[in-house]
Amino acid sequence: MLPDRVGQRDLFVCDIFNAAPKGDMASMEHPIFSLSTKPDFRRRRYEHNRSFVEIKPSPDGLATVHDRDVLIYCISQLMAALNEGRPVSRKLTLHAHDLLKATNRMTNGQGYEGLKAALRRLQGTQIETNLVTGGSEQFDVFSLIDRARIIRETREGRMQEVEITLSDWVFNAIEANEVLTLHRDYFRLRKPLERRIYELARKHCGMQPEWRISLELLQKKCGSNSTPKEFRRLVSTIISHDEAHGHMPDYSIRLDGDIVRFERRGTAGSRVRRPSRPDAAGHLALAPATFEAARKAAPGYDVHFLHAEWQAYAADQGTPVKHPDRAFIGFCKARHARAPLR
User: Fold this and answer.
1) 173 and 233: one domain?
2) Does residue 5 sit in helix, strand or coil?
3) 165 and 37, same structural domain?
4) Is-above-0.90 flag for pTM?
5) Structural domain tally of the chain?
6) pLDDT band for position 135 (50/70/90)?
7) Same domain, 47 and 133
8) Could you tell me if residue 283 is inside a domain?
9) Which of 181, 210, 235 is the last residue of a domain?
10) 238 occurs within a structural domain
11) Is residue 7 part of a domain?
């Protein structure tokens, strides 16, 4: 018999042109990537509640918010394949030109050199954390991608095909569906801080009408190294530009004293919400007794945080939730089963 060349799971070929952009929830929640546009060699540690992330640079510097585009493209391709029922693996091959086009990057020599630099930083940046992805809590040191290599080049030395091996940490999030859809205009945001603020809004506000956060905590979650005064100025500038042009995807931003307020514009990701979805897509009212049942289903968890996470997850599925109370309790049970808190 001829070898089975189709069913092998050791390599996935990226060939889905219109895959919706998706990011993993863990790195949307926590400041994994540097906001700097210059080489960043700072060793950083972020702690919040019982979670911590320690990020160590390579000789090429820390992986940046713009380097994250590579991971978003890979995650998007794998999730689209899973939705089609196709087998996937953490090793994948892609056309560099497709990635550059999908992430709104230049396709000239500068674009290809920038992609090479991004791959170096993604592989070289080391992370130690206790964040859970796919029910697996990791304490070891790992990189965001295990390996990247060019497998075909043009005569001029420009990369054509690239093979990337994702880390177990990233691939666990994909297999557990711990991802969220991003608006395609995310790739049009020029400033790293704009992208980071959008990620946090997409993660925490989701499909809720509003989300509020203190300026101090927002700075911590962004991973900004600016002074509080400078961070306020940077956020105020983004807000004034958004008020003038409405350029931030999905959410408008306001600053009330020391509180930053995000308001949903009425869409999430690139999909038009279905009118049959309860309360404008995702603002699903639950009975008070449901939260008590949720505490029993997921002991040790903050049920209000799980509620916000579930609402974003439910909205991302694209189908109305028929029984919200039962669905939320089931979500809590599944989370506890994957990662029980002791």
Assistant:
1) no
2) coil
3) yes
4) no
5) 3
6) low
7) yes
8) yes
9) 181
10) yes
11) no
- Residue 119 pLDDT greater than 60, yes or no: yes
| Helices and strands: H and E segment counts in the chain | 12, 15
With beta carbons less than 8 A apart as the criterion, state whether 69 and 103 touch.
yes
Domain span at residue 126 reads 12-181
Is residue 325 a contact partner of residue 287, using CB atoms and an 8 Å limit?
A: yes
The tokens for 15 are 């060939």
Between CA 142 and CA 145, with CA 144 as vertex, the angle to 5 degrees is 100
Q: Which of 152, 181, 210 is the last residue of a domain?
A: 181
Which DSSP helix (H) or strand (E) runs through 242? helix 228-245
- Residue 5 confidence class, pLDDT cut points 50, 70, 90: very low
* Residue 51 burial by Cβ neighbours in a 10 Å radius (0-12, 13-18, 19+): middle
Taking only the tens place, the pLDDT of each residue in 194-212 is: 999 999 999 999 888 999 9
- The encoded tokens of residue 143 equal 């990189």
pLDDT at 40 (0 to 100): 95
- Burial of 305 per CB tally in 10 Å (0-12, 13-18, 19+): exposed
Provide mean pLDDT across the span 274-296.
62
User: In the structure encoding, which two tokens stand for residue 63, read together?
Assistant: 């992986």
Cβ–Cβ < 8 Å for 76, 94: no
Q: How many CA atoms lie within 13 A of 318 on its CB side?
A: 8
Under 8 Å between Cβ of 203 and 29: yes
Let me know whether 137 and 75 are in one domain: yes
Within a domain: residue 215? yes
**DSSP alpha helix (H) spans, 95-223:** 96-102, 109-124, 168-175, 192-204, 215-222
**H or E stretch including 210?**
strand 210-214
Q: For residues 229 and 223, is the Cβ–Cβ distance under 8 A?
A: no
What is the rounded radius of gyration, in angstroms, for the C-alpha atoms of the chain?
Answer: 20
Any idea of the CA torsion for 282, 180, 132, 195, to the nearest 10 degrees? -110
Alpha-helical regions (H) of 16-156: 25-29, 68-83, 96-102, 109-124
Of 235, 217, 195, residue with least CA distance to 68: 195
Place of tokens 């700072």: 42
CA separation for the pair 314, 284 (Å, rounded): 10
Half-sphere exposure of 138 (CA within 13 A, CB side): 21
